Amino acid sequence: MSTRRSNGEGTYWKVEKEDRYRAQYYDRNGKRRTLSAKTAKEIQKKLREALSKRDNHTLENQPSLSGTVTETLYGFLESKKDKLAVRTLERYTLDVERYLIPEIGHIKLVSLTPEIIEVAYSNIKNKHGDGGLSDNSMAHVHSTLRGALKRAVRLKKLSVNPLDAVDAPKRKRVEAEPLTEDEVAQIIEVAKKKPTMWYLMWRIHLFTGFRQGEILGLMWEDIDLDKGTIFLHQQLQRQRGKGLVLKDLKSEAKSRTIYLDAPTLAILRIWKQEQSAYRLSLGNWGEWNFIFTNTKGKPMEPRKAADKWARLLVESGIPHVKLHAARHTFATLMLEKDVQTKVVTHYLGHTNASTTQNIYQHMNVQMLKNTADLIGEIAV
């Protein structure tokens, strides 16, 4: 939590991951400066002294942390604030504050070397998570540092990028194993015994391939019960510092209209009647018209839905997979049944069919058997 002072007097806060305090203020030229200290008392003293020197026109003789990697990293985040999606910026911020600053934040930018970065990567890898930080997370940390140092070179704060001499961590493609058709049938049998809203949610997850945020962002005005369609154009996200937020779909998850299967459409009609009756009995309902809500009519918390999914799998006797695996399952089953790739691409909201084929078309035993049968028919 930052402690703000009057205009021109700067601000200071504690960085929990470093167990240190930092302060920022602006010099007479409008340039932001950063200070660091171990205790709140010490950072307050440093800030007072720096502001006094600024006001007395002697600040230029006062050393600051303006040339550290920390400032370079925060400058990079600031430059991306209005250019990146909120969730993407949150991931960059996580890399900066949890991993990079604790290891190399205190180092002067001009003193940063490939050897220092390599040691930092080793420390980050080994300190975080059971068995160490994943390869993909390490690759993302590298990408964040690369962006910050490239910007520093562009702004002529560095003449040579030390990261050029560091091998980039290799990403590993992690494929979520899709559920089988029999496992889907097991889940549906158990889900039928659940309250209507939850049964409907699981059917939509398994039989449309929609993302969780897209499903939780659905409103009744997005449904045409006569035509049997759903119009997807927004998603519900939890964003740090903002809570649950509705966002328009990005270009890679383009707006689209999907036709529902008859059983799912029938359950949707039942749920609309049940929810309407519940709203009347409750009286105090949320201001939004969401299909999936909590008991007070507010947007559904993504974590709650994920927890419900985990319990559903336990009751169904199926090993745990993340809720996103329902999306993989839908795509794989449809492609197994020879549904045209461009149709599956439309359901998933991909920009092009190659994305669908590269990510979701898992080669499994059934696909190999189907191929063998086709070859056999040719050879008769």
Notes on the structure:
- Residues 61-66 have low confidence and may be disordered.
- The chain has three domains: 3-55, no CATH class; 69-165, Orthogonal Bundle (DNA polymerase, domain 1), CATH 1.10.150; 181-370, Intergrase catalytic core (hpI Integrase, Chain A, Orthogonal Bundle).
- The protein has 14 helices and nine strands.
- The strands form three sheets. A four-stranded antiparallel β-sheet has the order 1-2-3-4, covered by helices on one side. Strands 5-6-9 form a three-stranded antiparallel β-sheet, with no helix packed on it. It has a two-stranded antiparallel sheet with strand order 7-8.
- The chain is of the alpha+beta class.
- α2 (69-80) crosses α5 (135-154), α3 crosses α5 and α7 (196-208) runs antiparallel to α9 (262-282).
- The longest helix is centred in the last third of the chain and has 21 residues, at 262-282.
- β3 (20-26) and β4 (32-37) form a beta hairpin.
- The protein has helices at 40-55, 69-80, 86-104, 114-127, 135-154, 181-191, 196-208, 212-216, 262-282, 302-316, 325-336, 341-348, 353-360, 365-379; strands at 3-4, 11-15, 20-26, 32-37, 223-224, 229-232, 234-239, 243-248, 256-259.
